[in-house]
Amino acid sequence: MKNSSRFEFSLLGVVLLFASWFVVSKFVSSDLVFPGPEKVLSHSYRLLVEGKLLGPVGLTFLRAFFGMGLALLAGTVLGFLMGLSDRIYLLLQPLNMAIRSVPIVSWLSTVILAWGIGWRGVVFIVFVSLLPIVTFNVCEGVRVVDKKLVEMAKVYSLAKWKIFKAIYMGSVWPFLLSSLKLSIGSMWKVAIVAEYLIGETGLGVQIMQAKFYVNTTEVFSYTLVAVVFGLVLEALFSLLWERGSFEVHS
Amino acid sequence: MKCILELEGILKNYGELPVLGGIDLRIFESDAVAIVGQSGCGKTTLLRIIANLEKPDSGVINRFYSRLGFVFQEDRLIPWYSVRKNLELVCDDERKIQRTVQQVGLAGFEHYKPSQLSGGMRQRLNLARALIVEPELLLLDEPFRSLDTPTKVKLINDLSILLENINISYVLVTHDMREALSLAKRVYVMRGRPAKFVHHIELKKKMDFFDPSFLQLEKTILSHMEDTGALQ
Fold this sequence. Notes:
The complex is a heterodimer. Helix content of chain A is 86%, strand content 0%. Chain A is mainly α. In chain B, the strands form two sheets. A six-stranded mixed sheet of chain B has the order 5-6-7-3-8-9, sandwiched between helices. In chain B, strands 2-1-4 form a three-stranded antiparallel sheet, with helices on one face. In chain B, helix 3 packs across helix 4 (119-132).
């Protein structure tokens, strides 16, 4: 399909989404239950003008990004260790699987008791939610390293750091990018849920307060902003993905 | 002449399967040795033992060289690195990189990745990587196996001239007589299960495909290679 046709179809998809939303809201005919897009958009604009939008978005983004950064660092180290050693893999895999299966709400009591209400708990929940994804992906990347390349490196007596950089990192890189892509999609949603439950400020708290005052239009406005911001982040990352793969692998 | 590699009584089994049954070999400075034998007879295993990628079950190996080059059967190039970066991995000297790229006929392709090169060009890069470390001993493991005949003939000719000029010792393993007779001055025939050297030929010079005695020598070597014990 031509690029221009793809763009036209994507645009048509967005129009279809808003049209369906509009039809459903007219069918429900209650702003309290399901406000229409025109109301949500105008309310979002008002929040933006009043300065109630960008602040919470920025705070949520910082927490989500910080949590993801920590997960990337720790997950890369753990993934490498698990990928390189079968013993460490067998030792840590049950823990990794357990962390992956624990629901977010199960962390709440621990987090609240440890840090109380606030940003640290949100960062921690983003971290533990993303850690298993990164660890698993990096571990897989290490395990599929071409042993023949490692053998070649041995013949030429390459320094360990060169083997790590040229062979292991090169092999792990696509897996790391893939986990980064998955993480960017998840971190945003996890951060908002965590803020909703134990946050002091941020988008999640704004949604929680709007829900508390039964202001469904405001809940929808913040949700719309969250969705748009999440999509923008993913699109930005996709651009970096293409450029990043090229730079590292050239 | 100085000996740079000495193998004595090399034995190797893979579990119950005997592979090498007492290999003795000496490689000297500026030596050009080919080891021929049917596929699966243990030629690659012998090269891997020489390169210290595998340990023999018994036997003595004395290495008197410090730098080794290995042209693998598969190119073993870093797929995400360009031609230049593949060479930079083993050599920091910019002038050497430029010179070697010229020598193997890859000038102008320095920024290409292995996947963008033909099979012949990838093997040239494989060879360049082995030569750029200025090895005292070069091991060539059926380097032309996956190439079509015209590319193979061209590469054999180029390699023959190149190796003559740089004057290093090399050991080529192959099942192809043309490769062996074109590139080596000593040809060892490997046969049996476990494999041993059953015959060896000293040539006064490397041979040309069109040399009248080429066919006769090929026939002699083939008669020594005939063996039903080799793995197919």
